[in-house]
Structure to design on (496 residues):
């Protein structure tokens, strides 16, 4: 019998009573790994009620104790990094190197959460009036919600609950129903590290479960990562209820190649940055803007891409894995066809790739288009596959105009040996994360993950100092402690 993915409620991994289930599938073989149940409304209510009760105690737990939980957790995650990577490689499909990176980038957030005593420091001004002081307290919110996508099964849950919990909150986590396996292991280790019962609860499902959660009166803040349409739905619904919300969404990341760039550096970085993880990264480079004669480099890039292939997660020669589902593969293939139909030149077409021994995998080989214009579907849509679009620009100004006209603003990079070009680009580009001679500029967790425009809805971003502000409320106290004369003869008391 196929195993069923458990929920985590009040410290116990329990089975859902739901009859509504979905298969969790290995995307390289189509083997069914497990079934994920879509939690019932009663189970979701119980999860929220348990989290609320846990929060009432946890909010009073001394901050250094919360930090120590994160220190123990960080150690356990490091010890189990490879095991977690292998679990997520099975349902997500990414190769071991990428899977190890997925876990590692999450561990770094836990390391950041270990700093929570310093991060929670408020401000004080003594003597705002005679004998009066004003200071701020930074307090947790209550029961928060985390909804995660399929493409980083470890890192993105770890963006959320370590920061939320370190700040004193509880969290309900709803992992992607396509890849729930790693989250179970992450939370087993969190329990082992000493997390109090109920402080993170895990339920499963899709739209109906997300809608119940975001509308639940006891959930006060939502962190969401996923596609643009769902992010818009979650952001509109939560903010309409006057709740705090941060929604990270889709992307179309441009890399600008200047004529003075070092060609070898560009070529060496582009292969991994474009088709790594099968292009299923929100920071993948999907558009290369070649300035001037550098458009000639596209042919050499195609040659390099031709020499790599996808494969199963533990194949050391595979550059990346399959797409997550048959539906994702069909969508990417249809977009490739649209590129051809709309007049782009398909220099490299990865649609007919076969991987020996894995005839049923969701494989798409590296694909490269030139002669792409900004009206084409392959330019306008987030393809989320190993497909590279090459665009020409006459100058840095022209490149900036192309990038700034894109509705997305997650990440971008410029390759140049000119400090003047680099500075101009970083200053004028309307994108939240900029790389200079770095293709995928994901900040380490002491900064925040700062996507802009359609790639992010909200005010405060993930991790860094902004996550602390997102998961806390500021209380400002103005206090007067003055010596008070009381009527008793010859007695004055200082109020305590
Ligand atoms: P998705 O939007 O399909 O799913 C994300 C989550 O929303 C899942 O937990 C899913 O169960 C839930 N969901 C799906 N449909 C829903 C609906 N109609 N109503 C309510 N909830 C719903 O996204 P995905 O395909 O899992 O992930 C890929 C997307 O995530 C890409 O667009 C990628 O760019 C984006 N992403 C963005 C970032 C970022 O930081 N900006 C990071 C990673 C991924």
């Amino acid at each position: 019998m196929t195993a069923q993915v458990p929920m985590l409620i009040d410290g116990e991994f329990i089975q859902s009573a739901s009859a509504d289930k979905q298969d969790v599938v290995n995307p390289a073989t189509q083997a069914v790994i497990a079934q994920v149940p879509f939690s019932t409304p009663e189970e979701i209510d119980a999860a929220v009620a348990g989290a609320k009760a846990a929060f009432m105690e946890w909010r009073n737990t001394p901050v250094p104790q919360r930090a120590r939980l994160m220190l123990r957790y960080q150690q356990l995650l490091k010890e189990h990094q490879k095991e977690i990577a292998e679990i997520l490689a099975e349902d997500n499909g990414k190769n071991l190197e990428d899977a190890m990176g997925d876990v590692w980038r999450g561990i770094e957030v836990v390391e950041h959460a270990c700093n929570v005593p310093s991060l929670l420091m408020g401000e004080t001004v003594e003597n705002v009036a005679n004998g009066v002081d004003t200071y701020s307290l930074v307090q947790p919110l209550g029961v928060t919600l985390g909804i995660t996508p399929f493409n980083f099964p470890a890192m993105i849950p770890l963006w959320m609950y370590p920061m939320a919990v370190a700040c004193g909150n509880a969290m309900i986590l709803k992992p992607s129903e396509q890849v729930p396996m790693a989250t179970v292991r992450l939370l087993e280790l969190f329990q082992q590290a000493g997390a109090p019962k109920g402080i993170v609860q895990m339920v499963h499902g899709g739209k109906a479960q997300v809608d119940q959660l975001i509308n639940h009166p006891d959930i006060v803040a939502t962190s969401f990562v996923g596609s643009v349409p769902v992010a818009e739905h979650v952001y509109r619904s939560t903010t309409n209820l006057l709740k705090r919300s941060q929604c990270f969404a889709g992307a179309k990341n441009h890399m600008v190649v200047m004529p003075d760039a070092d060609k070898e550096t560009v070529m060496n970085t582009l292969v991994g940055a474009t088709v790594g993880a099968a292009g299923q990264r929100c920071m993948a480079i999907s558009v290369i803007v070649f300035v001037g004669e550098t458009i000639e480099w596209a042919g050499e890039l195609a040659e390099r891409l031709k020499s790599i292939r996808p494969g199963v997660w533990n194949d050391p020669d595979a550059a990346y894995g399959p797409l997550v589902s048959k539906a994702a593969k069909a969508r990417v293939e249809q977009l490739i066809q649209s590129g051809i139909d709309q007049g782009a030149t398909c220099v490299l077409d990865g649609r007919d790739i076969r991987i020996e021994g894995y005839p049923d995998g969701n494989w798409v080989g590296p694909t490269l288009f030139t002669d792409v214009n900004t009206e084409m579907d392959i330019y306008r849509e987030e393809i989320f596959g190993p497909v590279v679009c090459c665009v020409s620009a006459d100058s840095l100004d022209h490149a900036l105009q192309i990038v700034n006209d894109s509705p997305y603003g997650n990440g971008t990079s410029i390759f140049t040996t000119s400090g003047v070009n680099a500075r101009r680009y970083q200053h004028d580009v309307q994108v939240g994360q900029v790389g200079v001679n770095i293709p995928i500029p994901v900040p380490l967790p002491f900064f925040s993950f700062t996507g802009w425009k359609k790639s992010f809805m909200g005010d405060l971003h993930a991790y860094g100092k902004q996550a602390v502000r997102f998961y806390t409320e500021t209380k400002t106290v103005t206090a007067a402690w003055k010596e008070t004369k009381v009527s008793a003869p010859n007695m004055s008391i200082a109020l305590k």
